[in-house]
Amino acid sequence: MKKWKWPKDRRYGWYRGNRQRSFSDEQWHGYNDAGPSHRAPQRDNRPAHASSPPASSSSSNSNSGVPELPGFYFDPEKNRYFRLLPGHNNCNPLTKDQLQEKEREKQRHQRLAEDEKTTKKAPRTGLNTSLLLQKRHLGLLPENSYCRLVHEVKVSGMRRHKLEIQSTDNSNPNTDNFRIIVGDSVCERVFTVNDVSHGGCKYGIMNFSSGSRGSLSVEMCDNLYFTNRKVNSICWASVNYPDSHVLLCLVGAADTPGCVSLLPASLFSNSNPDQPGMLCSFKISTAWSCAWCLNPQFDKTFSTGLSRRVIVKDAETGRTQTYGVGTDVLAQHFALRVPVLFNGCRSGEIFSIDLRQRGRRDHSWKAKRFHHESAITSVRVLQDENYLLAADMLGQIKMWDVRVTKPVLEYKGHNNEHAYLPIHVNEHEGLLLAVGQDCYTRLWSLKDGHLLRTIPSPHPAANDMIPSVVFSSNLGGSRGLPGLLMAVRHDLYYFPYNTDYQEGGELCL
């Protein structure tokens, strides 16, 4: 017989003594109808785990260098391809959405496990309280910078505690999912909106108080109100005294038109429910947003953002001024020192209205105008009213200098694609907070935009289970406790600033 000579050059795909196909040959012949039997190509005779680092199921092909095959996904742990579509027997279908959701859940559990650790990673390299105190004593850190950096250290040390909501009616525990929580100016009371399973929503007020041993207690008022209409926007209103009322934008349902309601907070009080005070309902339909003016010149004035209109109304006299715009107004916020209203629109435009000027058809009443690339979901005027924060549906959060209408700082990492999500500012602590569409709560340094902390939701992420948060230096009033309040599903969680927080009378280590 004639002896066959094998080529010695491995470029031809086969060589004697080791029948291994080349990478290009494996890539070409890897796709056939076998599906689950396919394995990834192995290079340099290394074991499969050596060439495939752990990665997400949805993006493993791009991260590990494994070729992407249409209709299949690669599992790096098992080192093989699996069919994305149902097999011939239509059993165990797999989709990219399911794989991505599985990977997100895995990452969420990893972050929750990291949050449970007693020692956590500092938000910045080399940042700790002892080093900061040493620099402060040496005069290397000014007072403002020292306080701000200490707050960053405290943020990294916050741990989750579940709060029990007390009520006189213990036979009827809260089983409806939280949708919105909004704290008053001193965070002694928090207005809540819960979705009701049979449709509509209910709303009430939770009262917070801090105990002598450093614990936080929550009491829900029994006078809960039910409505068959959804709540679009909420803000506290100071009609008779600070935070005496709550302003709500209610969406129309069936034959019931939408409206804007001004409810006295005393309605939600167990002590004196018989004297509610001024109760008003304004026939303003399709209201997307609302804001209350605290400037002394217009102290009884509120605004609502509608489709193609902005309405400014005096709550006592009913005097109304209308400004026509070409898009939906999704976010509003008043400046404090001057009666100027800032508006964020679906078109991405942000413009201001000076209430001392009357509206004109040529839009010359727009004092300032600047733009984002997507719909605006939230606007917040800072104490230095030359600066404004704005968030949009592309996940961008920017700080604008109103004087020159240019962004001066951007806060990266926020996740949003189409949701109506607010941002929260605490200038005393120097923090900016936002809950993303991925259900993660992120905290940034307000001064330089550094991402300090990313807090996962205690429950699996879902579009209808996005947490609602309140952050305050004094939860429960002037003698309250500092920290973050998070409401998700029907549970309420507290992330204290101080590490010696006591829960149920015991020290939480």
UniProtKB/TrEMBL annotation:
Name of protein: WD repeat domain 21
Biased composition (Basic and acidic residues): 98-119
Family matches, as Pfam families: Beta-prop_DCAF4
Species of provenance: Crenichthys baileyi
Annotated keywords: Repeat, WD repeat
Region (Disordered) location: 16-70, 84-122
PANTHER family noted in UniProt: DDB1 AND CUL4 ASSOCIATED FACTOR 4, DDB1- AND CUL4-ASSOCIATED FACTOR 4-RELATED
Mapped WD repeat ranges: 369-410
Biased composition (Low complexity): 50-64
GO cellular component: Cul4-RING E3 ubiquitin ligase complex
